[in-house]
Amino acid sequence: MAQSFLFTGSRGGGKTSTARILAKALNCEKGPAVEPCNQCVSCDEITRGTSLDILEIDGASNRGIDEIRALRENVKFKPTHGRYKIYIIDEVHQITHDGFNALLKTLEEPPPHVKFIFATTEAHKVPLTILSRCQRFNFRRIPTAEVVAKLKEVAREEKIKISDQAIFLIAKQSEGSLRDAEGLLDQMASFSGSKIEETDITFSLGLAESGVYFSILSALKERNTKEILTQIAKLSDEGKDLNQFAKGLVELFRNLLVFQVGGEAEKLIEGSDEELAELQKFKSAFSREELLFSLTLLQQLAREIRWAQTPRFSIEACLLKIAHRSDLKSIDEILKELKSFPKSNFVIPAEAGIQAHRSPTLSEKNVEFFPKSAPRTGASVKDFGDDLKSKEPQKKKDNFELEQAAVATSPEELPRPAFQRSAAIVSTAKQPNTVILRPKADKEETAPTKPKVVAGSTITISDVGRVWPDLLERVKAIKMSCGTYLAESEPVEVVDGFVVFGFPVEFKFHKEAIEHQSNKELVRSTLNTLLGATVNVSFVVTQPVKNVTTSPVSSAQLSDVKESEIITSALNIFEGSKVVRRDPN
Questions:
Q1: CA 48, CA 567: separation in Å to the nearest integer?
Q2: Which is more confident, 236 or 405?
Q3: Does 72 have pLDDT greater than 70?
Q4: Three-class SS string for 312-328?
């Protein structure tokens, strides 16, 4: 025989009553027996509640450590005249954590004359250390049919006149709790007159009659929105519980779905014979897709109506949406229509139409663009002169491109990706009037080619620069942290449908943070809204170009330069006033 028992289950399932019966069986003078005799002194005292050896404790009001310590002191004393001293603790999950710790030692080494019987509706709140020391018994929910049978027996014994519909409604509202059902029957016997009818219960509990549900079901079948609104208004004016009404609608459509799938209605549906016969009439009124669609909407309504400011309007909107279900197309119909469309009717996504291209960076004065085809060493003076001869500069943009071709990159910089090279900061920006001169190369090499821009490009870096302030402002307004990260970058180029944002090396953390999916999606969607086009975004770490080392030019070299017609033309074009020699190493 175990020293402690745990009874768990839904409310009104007979846990405490079973605990008293078990106490009788343990202390019966003819026992311990499977069934108490109910005739001995011990059984009689327990029945009348006068036994000194059976102590019933409410866990909700005796939950502290002080009460448990007092219990530990009392368990030392032997029972008065019974076989065991039995403690029945109801709602044991209400005991505090410290209280359970104080009780644990007694459960581990209980006196041989003590038994514990715990009852609870929430066993998951009882610590595992307590559960592991108890024999657990789960009490099932009492079926509605058994509750109905018991209520009929009680009504017959108490000479209460009640209709079958009223008894079924009481049993249904009790939700498997026989105690609640008996209490509600007693309340209705005091409230009603000579006979309890279904209308008495619905009026007392604020419930809608079953006829209202079927009237609304008929209106939904006929798509009669006027009748739907009339029935809801009537319920509201009569003060019915709209939360319960929403739950009733969920149950109604669930029962229809059971009929639709061919389930055994008598076993799977809790309803009177009259309700089952009425449901049978609507078996073919709705398709299975319509029932699933309606059930989904009603379940969402039942969840949200508890917090709705105007539950009546929420119910009306939901039912009207169900009434206009014919305007919606099923998945099969949509797929069938898609298959019938010619391929030419499909629209190519916007991002597929954005062709790869390269555009100048945001600030042309201090940023260089290096094409992928750039040579590994800088262009010679001769190459630069040939380029000047072949192209007569006419615009400021041409001058800028020639200046780009004249400046060479170091070998360390070339392996970087193209979008990083395009963002490199030219260290010679502090020397605007300086012409950098290289020693003549041993072998002439091809000068860097001008970057190609694919025809059909729609978004340029200039477009991104135009919306850049608004982009920062909007992103910060939506998510301040994301806007703070983005502010440490700048747009560097648009390539292959991607807008590339560059972060300095010291802000690598910001780059990693903004690459989180939520931040990246926020930047992308906001940028697309501002540009009115579909682009993606990418984030890179940019590396500054190493400072160009210069050394003074010898007098012989300076004389050669001054006598060169090419160099003279270059100085006139770029307004140069200083000639220096660059060390290639």
A1: 121
A2: 236
A3: yes
A4: HHHHHHHHHHHHCHHHC
pLDDT (tens digit per residue) in 325-337:
777 666 777 777 7
**DSSP 8-state symbol, 560:** H
What CA dihedral angle connects 33, 37, 41 and 42, to 10 degrees?
Answer: 40
In the Cβ-directed half-sphere of 565, how many Cα atoms lie within 13 Å?
Answer: 3
CA distance 296 to 299: 5
**In the sheet that 114-120 helps form, which strands lie side by side, from edge to edge?**
54-58, 85-90, 114-120, 4-9, 135-139
- Cβ neighbours around 223 below 10 Å, total: 14
Whether the pLDDT of residue 291 is over 60: the answer is: yes
Which residue has tokens 């970087």? 416
Radius of gyration of the chain from its Cα atoms, rounded to whole angstroms: 43
Give residue 493's Cα distance to chain centre: 35
Provide the pLDDT for residue 397: 43
> What is the rounded average pLDDT of the residues 196-214?
88
The DSSP string of 528-568 is HHHHTS--EEEEEEE-PPPPPPEEPPPHHHHHHHHH-HHHH
Query: Nearest-5° angle of CA 46, CA 47, CA 49?
Result: 60
Q: Which amino acid is at 568?
A: T
Q: 429 burial class (0-12, 13-18, 19+ CB within 10 angstroms)?
A: exposed
Average pLDDT score over residue span 528-535:
89
Residue 337: its pLDDT value, please? 77
Helices and strands, number each (H, E), in the chain: 26, 11
Q: Which two tokens stand for residue 466?
A: 């135009």
**Residue 452: partners with Cβ closer than 8 Å, 6 or more residues away:** 357, 358, 371
Q: How many angstroms separate the CA atoms of 151 and 157, rounded?
A: 10
Asked if 65 contacts 99 with a C-beta cutoff of 8 angstroms, the reply is: yes
Asked whether 200 and 191 are in contact (CB, 8 A), the reply is yes
In the chain the domains, ranked by start, together with CATH numbers, are 4-139 (3.40.50.300), 144-205 (1.10.8.60), 210-327 (1.20.272.10), 352-585 (no CATH)
Q: Is the pLDDT of residue 344 over 60?
A: no
Spatial distance between the Cα atoms of 295 and 423, rounded to a whole number of angstroms: 57
